[in-house]
Amino acid sequence: xxxxxxxxxxxxxxxxxxxxxxxxxxxxxxxxxxxxxxxxxxxxxxxxxxxxxxxxxxxxxxxxxxxxxxxxxxxxxxxxxxxxxxxxxxxxxxxxxxxxxxxxxxxx
Length: 108
Ligand code: FES
Hints:
Bound molecules: FE2/S2 (inorganic) cluster
Strand content: 25-35%
Number of strands: 5
Number of helices: 2
Distance between the termini: 37 Å
Mean pLDDT: 95
Radius of gyration: 13 Å
Organism: Hymenobacter cellulosivorans
Order of helices and strands: EEHEHEE
Low-confidence stretches: none
Structural class: alpha+beta
Keywords: 2Fe-2S, Iron, Iron-sulfur, Metal-binding
Protein name: 2Fe-2S iron-sulfur cluster-binding protein
Pfam families: Fer2
Cofactor: [2Fe-2S] cluster
Largest sheet: 5 strands, mixed
Helix content: 10-25%
């Protein structure tokens, strides 16, 4: 068992950047994306309250269903797609390996 996973961020159509994330630090995807230089405000600090960490899951392993709090926040955003998730609510675990996400414009 490896202690890191690879997540891919689609920065433009057919342009994906690999992000390596440790699985043993209880990090959220939002924290990993911020640490990788992505401009995510995360003004609520990961409490599912600000929506600025909105991502769209494009491919990869199935994730746990969003909590009621996450769903309520997502539904309040101007744009919500089938793959919409709050990256602060996604824990980095081995199961995430191969996940592909796209950052949604902040405020949407
Ligand atoms: S950081 Fe605020 S909702 Fe995720």
